[in-house]
Amino acid sequence: MDVAYGYGVPKLWSETIEEHRREVRAAILDTTAALVTHHGLRGATMSRIADETGIGRATLYKYFPDVESILAAWHERQVDAHLAQLAEIRDRAAADPARRLAAVLEAYAQLSHGSRDNHDPELAALLHRQVRHLEPALQRVHAMICDLLAEAARTGDVRGDVPPAELADYCLHALGAAAGNHTTGAVERLVRVTMAGLRPG
After folding, report:
1. Using one digit for the tens of pLDDT, what is the confidence trace for 142-197?
2. Alpha-carbon 94 to chain mean position
3. pTM reported for the whole predicted model
4. Are the CB atoms for 30 and 3 separated by under 8 Å?
5. Cα-only R_g, the chain
6. Cα 122 to Cα 101: distance, rounded to the nearest angstrom
7. Per-domain residue ranges for the chain?
8. What CATH architecture is 17-65?
9. Which of 35, 186, 46, 27 is nearest to 116 (CA)?
10. Which of 56, 107, 59 is nearest to 83 (CA)?
11. Residue 37 burial class via C-beta count within 10 angstroms: exposed 0-12, middle 13-18, buried 19 and up
């Protein structure tokens, strides 16, 4: 059977059952995301997801009870990938604390901007209702930015009269506006304004 989206179920020759299950789960997530991208949220039904993935409906229901739970898992995977990307940028950025902070804030803002472009309104509303699974990820981002702010404050690049945790709140709320901006230039200006608010004096 040809799979329209190229995410067919992997063969049973996977080295372990657990690896096979991970691969099937990933194929389900990828297929569902492709269906939503090409046909909208209503175009992704459990029957169609099973057909396009190349598995039986009974097998699909062993992994997920409904489309909403598949999309929640897909979104969680996306968020985990974004966290890994932010950590990589933090670790490879210049040794200068202010530049490391700016690099991470810029990346966070661009990711927020990109997530807006990739979601149709119906999908965005669905994901917005599932914010609980985002809390741990937001806490990790907050902790990362807080550490960078504390480091930059010690070198005098960031104001020291406000606790780093409060400044991290300021950054995340300010850069959350990037999701509503329509151009990369607007996002870059927002990052510059946010950085200006962090400077001493």
Report:
1. 999 999 999 999 999 999 999 999 999 999 999 887 777 668 888 889 899 999 99
2. 24
3. 0.74
4. no
5. 20
6. 34
7. 17-65, 69-198
8. Orthogonal Bundle (1.10)
9. 186
10. 107
11. middle
